[in-house]
Design brief:
heterodimer, A: 255 residues, alpha/beta, Rossmann fold, two-stranded antiparallel sheet, 10 helices, B: 360 residues, seven-stranded mixed β-sheet, five-stranded mixed β-sheet, 14 helices, 20% strand
Chain lengths: 255, 360
C-alpha cells in the first residue's frame, strides 16, 4: 500500500514544524554539531513567547559567528569574548527589550572571562547561553579552558596536562557563586529528552528576564564531532561518558 | 539665559554630555580624566535625563558597552587616558568596522607604557592613523580650552551620527585638569526610542514585522565583498576630509614663520607668536581643531608666503609628519616637542623657532 505524502503533511497531522522565527538560510554548521539544535530551540522559544519583535541577540566569535543569519530578530555581532559587555549596554539603554548572548567556551571562559564574571556579578538582566564543547571548533580544534584532562587537541596533542595547563575550568560553577546570577543551569541537546529540558530552561531564562530577576546562565554541554574527530553518534557517546561526569547536567542555582 | 561656570575640563565634558542628551556613559577610572565619571556619578543624570552611567570592569568592557549601546542607535560615550585608550583599540576598530557612531574622550598622558600622569600629545598617531587593526579612521577633535571640551561633546556626536563613525576628543592632562570659565548650553532632551527608530533605521531596536532584521556586524567572509566595504569606508573618510576640516588661524595673514600646534601646545604657541611679533618676527599659528581630517589644504594655501614651519607638540614628533605631507618638500618644516609629561614654555617655543627655522 503506497503512502500519500500529502495525506501525511495535512495541517492537522503536523506535530513538529519549522519555527517561524527561523530564517530560510541553510545553517553552515558541521553535520552532528549541537549549535544547530540550540539555534533552533532559541528560535522556537522566541516564537512561542511572542517576543520576536522585542528581542535583541548578541552573537559571538567562533563557530556561531553567523548565528544572526538563522533567527529573524535584530542582532549585534560582538568581538571575541565581549558579548556580555554588549548585552549589558543593550539592556541598560533598552530595558524594554529581551536581550540574550550566545558564546562558546573560548569566547566565554577564556578571552571573555572578565566580562562573563562581572556581567553576572552585576546581575545584568539578560540571558547568557554558553555552548561548552571543550574545544575550539572554528580555529581547528585547539585546547579550550574547558578541555578535559587528558583530552587531545591541536595545542595539547599529548592530552591536556593539568600541571601545565590547569584543570578544566568550571566557569558555570563560578558564575553560580555570584549573587547577580539568579538562574544557573547545565543542559545538553543530544537526546529528545535533553532537548526538551533545554527548551524548558531557555523559556525559564527569558521569563526570568521579564520578571527582572538578573542574569540567567545556561550552559549547554555540546559536541564538536569535527574537532573531536568522532562521528556524530560516537561524539554523543563520548560526551556522555567523559563530559557529563566532569560537567554534570542539571540546575545549579534557581532563585 | 547664559549659564557661566568655572569648571575643570573633565567636569565640562561630563556636564556637556548630560546637557546634549547623551544616553549612556560606560567607563573605567584612570588619571588624569577620572573626574569625567566622578562628575557624572555625582550629578546622577539617570534621575534627571535618564542617562545611564556605569563603571565597567575594564576599558575593554567599557568600549564594548559603548558598541552595544551605540548599535541601539543611542548616544553613547566613554572617556579614558592613554593606557586605557590602548586597551580600547579592539573596540574602536570594531565600532569603525560596524560603522557605529560614538564618542571616545582621550585625556592624554605621557607614554609609552604606564608612563606618567602628566599631559602629553603622544597619542596623535594612535588617534588619527587608525590605532587598531584594519584601514579605518576616527573623526578627531582637539580642544584647546575648557569651553571647547564642553562644546566638542555635542559636535563630536553630530559628526559621529552624520557619518556613522566613531569620534574622538583628543585632549590632554593639562586641559582636562585646568579650570576655566565655561558657558554652558541649555539642556536638550534625549532622543525617544521612536525618534531613534526613525532617524537611525540601521539600529537594533527590536525587529518590527514590516522590516528586515538589523544586523550590526563587522564580519564579512567574502574577500571581494569586504574589499568593496573597505572602499566604501575610504570614500566616507574622503567625504569627511572634504567637508569637516576645522582650524583656527592666528596672525596668519602676513606670517612668514608658522607654528602648527593643537590643544595645549597651541595655547603655548599663541603666546610664543606674541613674543616673536614683539621682536619684529612675523610669526603666526595655525591650530588644527580637527586632527582627522587634518587642515592640509589650509597649510598648502599659506605655503607661498612662508619661510618655514615649526610643528610644536608634546611628543617626540608625530603631527609633524602630517605637516610635512601637507606642504611642498622645499619648505622647511621642523619639529619641536617635549615628552613624558614635560611641558615647554612660550619662551622655549619662540627660541626653538628662531633656532630651528630662522637660524637653522
Amino acid at each position: 500500500m503506497s503512502v500519500d505524502v500529502k495525506e501525511i503533511i495535512r495541517p492537522e497531522n503536523i506535530v513538529y514544524k519549522k519555527s517561524s522565527a527561523l530564517t530560510d538560510n541553510p545553517m553552515h554548521y558541521c553535520p552532528g554539531c549541537t549549535h544547530g539544535v540550540v539555534n533552533r530551540l532559541l528560535a522556537e522559544v522566541i516564537e512561542e513567547l511572542g517576543i520576536q519583535e522585542d528581542t535583541i541577540g548578541v552573537t559571538p566569535v567562533g563557530c556561531a559567528v553567523l548565528l544572526y543569519n538563522y533567527i529573524d530578530i535584530d542582532w549585534q555581532e560582538a568581538a571575541h569574548g565581549r558579548a556580555p559587555a554588549l548585552g549589558t549596554a543593550i539592556k541598560r539603554v533598552r530595558p524594554d527589550k529581551y536581550v540574550f548572548t550566545y558564546q562558546g567556551d573560548g569566547d566565554l571562559a577564556a578571552i571573555g572571562t572578565a566580562e562573563t564574571i562581572h556581567t553576572c556579578n552585576r546581575g545584568e538582566n539578560i540571558v547568557m547561553v554558553f555552548i561548552n564543547n571543550g574545544i575550539y571548533g572554528m580555529t581547528g580544534g585547539q585546547m579550550a579552558p574547558t578541555t578535559l584532562e587528558g583530552m587531545k587537541t591541536a595545542t595539547c596533542p599529548y592530552g591536556r596536562d593539568p600541571k601545565r595547563d590547569g584543570m578544566p575550568l568550571k566557569i558555570t560553577e563560578i558564575v553560580a557563586g555570584l549573587p547577580g546570577a539568579s538562574y544557573v543551569t547545565r543542559q545538553a541537546a543530544h537526546t529528545a529528552n535533553a532537548v526538551r529540558k533545554l527548551k524548558k530552561a531557555l523559556i525559564k531564562a527569558f521569563k526570568n528576564q521579564e520578571a527582572g530577576k538578573g542574569t540567567s546562565f545556561i550552559e549547554v554541554v555540546a559536541t564538536c564531532n569535527s574537532g573531536w574527530k568522532l562521528t556524530p553518534v560516537d561524539a554523543n557517546k563520548w560526551m556522555e561518558e567523559h563530559m557529563f561526569p566532569y560537567y554534570p547536567l542539571g540546575d545549579i542555582k534557581d532563585e | 539665559m547664559k549659564e557661566i561656570r568655572l569648571m575643570k575640563g573633565n567636569e565640562a565634558i561630563a556636564e556637556a554630555a548630560i546637557r546634549c542628551g547623551v544616553d549612556a556613559y560606560f567607563g573605567y577610572p584612570i588619571t588624569p580624566q577620572s573626574e569625567v565619571m566622578e562628575t557624572l556619578m555625582d550629578l546622577r543624570p539617570w534621575e534627571s535625563t535618564g542617562m545611564e552611567v556605569l563603571q565597567a570592569e575594564s576599558e575593554v568592557a567599557s568600549i564594548n558597552m559603548v558598541y552595544g549601546g551605540a548599535a541601539c542607535g543611542k548616544k553613547v560615550m566613554t572617556s579614558s587616558s592613554s593606557p586605557g585608550i590602548s586597551l580600547m583599540q579592539e573596540g574602536l576598530t570594531y565600532l569603525a568596522g560596524a560603522e557605529l557612531p560614538c564618542l571616545v574622550v582621550n585625556v592624554v598622558r605621557g607614554g609609552p607604557g604606564l608612563g606618567t600622569i602628566q599631559p602629553a600629545q603622544s597619542d596623535y598617531f594612535q588617534a588619527v592613523k587608525g590605532g587598531g587593526h584594519g584601514d579605518y579612521k576616527l573623526i578627531v577633535l582637539a580642544p584647546a580650552s575648557v569651553q571647547e571640551m564642553a562644546d566638542f561633546v555635542e559636535l563630536a556626536f553630530d559628526l559621529a551620527f552624520k557619518y556613522r563613525n566613531p569620534a574622538m576628543i583628543l585632549s590632554d592632562g593639562m586641559i582636562g585638569q585646568m579650570m576655566e570659565k565655561v558657558e554652558l548650553k541649555a539642556f536638550k532632551p534625549r532622543w525617544t526610542n521612536d525618534e531613534i527608530a526613525q532617524m537611525h533605521p540601521w539600529a537594533t531596536t527590536g525587529k518590527p514585522k514590516n522590516r528586515k532584521r538589523n544586523i550590526i556586524t563587522s564580519v564579512e567572509l567574502d574577500p571581494l565583498k569586504f574589499e568593496a566595504f573597505n572602499i566604501k569606508l575610504q570614500a566616507k573618510y574622503k567625504a569627511i576630509e572634504e567637508a569637516e576640516v576645522r582650524y583656527e588661524k592666528i596672525m596668519c595673514d602676513d606670517a612668514e614663520y608658522l607654528f602648527v600646534a593643537y590643544g595645549s601646545s597651541a595655547r603655548i604657541c599663541r603666546k610664543a607668536v606674541e613674543i616673536l611679533r614683539e621682536k619684529g618676527i612675523k610669526a603666526g599659528l595655525l591650530r588644527p581643531i580637527t586632527l582627522f581630517p587634518f587642515p592640509s589644504n589650509q597649510l598648502k594655501e599659506l605655503q607661498p608666503q612662508l619661510k618655514g614651519i615649526l610643528a610644536v607638540e608634546l611628543s617626540m614628533g608625530q603631527m609633524v609628519e602630517d605637516v610635512r605631507l601637507s606642504v611642498d618638500s622645499k619648505l622647511k618644516v621642523e619639529h619641536f616637542g617635549r615628552a613624558g609629561g614635560a611641558i615647554f614654555s612660550p619662551e622655549e617655543v619662540a627660541e626653538a623657532l628662531e633656532a630651528k627655522i630662522i637660524g637653522g
